[in-house]
Here is the input.
Amino acid sequence: MENEQLQRLVESISLHEFQKTFRHAAYFNPRLRTTGGRYMLRTHNIEVNKRYYEEFGEEELKGIIRHELCHYHLHLEGKGYKHRDYDFRQLLAKVNAPRFCSELPNTRAKRKPNKILIYECSLCNLQYRRKRVVDTARFVCGKCRGKLFKKSD
Here is the structure.
């Protein structure tokens, strides 16, 4: 499927499901990684992740388009277009659009597990568990002001 076909598909879904015309651009964005699509507030264009079409097929693509069209039409009407808004949830249910898209395969495997770093005070032996690296030359123990050192893994 190419951008022209996507544009026609978005226009037809908008007309049949929402009874409203789609007057802006819809196209595939190859840079999208974590989402199926997005509605651009300033330009009113809709960008779609092509990988969802390739992995899951046309039905998943139609669901993503319906979801983004909910944002589109509500925003243009001046109603609540955000995920938490009542108007948005009502329209999602009305047109049977998914709230979230399916997870792409291998996306969980690429995420790094959170590594916990342990720092210990040299005076009072209090341990600090951190996800981010602490500059031990700059920071000291909050209890006794002793020097911190990184404990071996």
